[in-house]
């Protein structure tokens, strides 16, 4: 299974996928990594010899156009929507993917989110859980649909919130579960153990 991974930040989830894919037994390989910015995490891909690209929203006249340019870059790198669809993995992409992009790739399009959706959707999930006084939160891997963090849930894992957790401490505790969860979810998809089309059609 060919993967296109999209990031905006440090890319520790990307790094976990790169490390997993370094094992020839792993049933998926990362053929490209894209970002909306000069994400530090792109260095992980470069170190692994994986092609990277940056598609800046500012270079397009609209969100939809940005989505079209991003989709073209992904497909140029071999992650297609044809008979042998690849998989687009949003792993810390801090952008809402436009409807046209989602329609083009979904259901072969997943996201990882640092909360137990439907709790705490949006860009500040960890901060929101802390602000709400949650004693538990977690991570969700889901199919991306045209909503924000609303697609069918694939896998979830819970994490305890500790007294006096800072946002960074809690987020790192979440990431310690998130990284292996994302790797396992990609493995299951690659092995055909998760029926994305069936889940997305419910
Ligand atoms: C992850 O926790 C992801 O769920 C959230 O952003 C974080 C990205 O972390 N959307 P990293 O860049 O993979 O370290």
TrEMBL record:
Catalytic activity of the protein: N(1)-(5-phospho-beta-D-ribosyl)glycinamide + (6R)-10-formyltetrahydrofolate = N(2)-formyl-N(1)-(5-phospho-beta-D-ribosyl)glycinamide + (6S)-5,6,7,8-tetrahydrofolate + H(+)
Q: Which InterPro entries match?
A: Formyl_transf_N (IPR002376), Formyl_transf_N_sf (IPR036477), GART (IPR004607)
**One cellular component term from this protein's GO annotations in UniProt:** cytosol
Cite the GO molecular-function annotations of the record: phosphoribosylglycinamide formyltransferase activity
Q: In which pathway does it act?
A: Purine metabolism; IMP biosynthesis via de novo pathway; N(2)-formyl-N(1)-(5-phospho-D-ribosyl)glycinamide from N(1)-(5-phospho-D-ribosyl)glycinamide (10-formyl THF route): step 1/1
Which is one Pfam family of this protein? Formyl_trans_N
Taxonomic lineage of the native organism: Bacteria, Bacillati, Actinomycetota, Actinomycetes, Micrococcales
Put simply, this protein is called Phosphoribosylglycinamide formyltransferase
Biological processes, Gene Ontology terms = 'de novo' IMP biosynthetic process
Q: Where does N(1)-(5-phospho-beta-D-ribosyl)glycinamide bind?
A: 11-13
């Amino acid at each position: 299974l060919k993967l296109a991974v999209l990031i905006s930040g440090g890319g520790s989830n990307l790094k976990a996928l790169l490390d997993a894919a370094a094992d020839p037994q792993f049933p998926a390989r990362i053929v490209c990594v894209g970002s909306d910015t000069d994400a530090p995490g792109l260095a992980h891909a470069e170190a692994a010899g994986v092609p990277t690209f940056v598609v800046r929203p500012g270079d397009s006249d609209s969100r939809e156009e940005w989505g079209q340019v991003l989709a073209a870059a992904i497909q140029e790198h071999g992650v297609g929507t044809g008979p042998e669809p690849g998989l687009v993995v949003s792993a810390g992409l801090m952008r809402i993917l436009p409807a046209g992009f989602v329609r083009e790739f979904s259901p072969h399009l997943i996201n990882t989110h640092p909360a137990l959706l439907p709790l705490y959707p949006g860009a500040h999930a960890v901060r929101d859980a802390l602000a709400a006084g949650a004693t538990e939160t977690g991570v969700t891997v889901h199919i991306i649909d045209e909503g924000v963090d609303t697609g069918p849930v694939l896998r979830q894992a819970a994490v305890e919130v500790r007294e006096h957790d800072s946002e960074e401490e809690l987020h790192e505790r979440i990431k310690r579960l998130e990284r292996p969860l994302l790797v396992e979810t990609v493995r299951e998809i690659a092995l055909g153990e998760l029926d994305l089309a069936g889940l997305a059609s419910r």
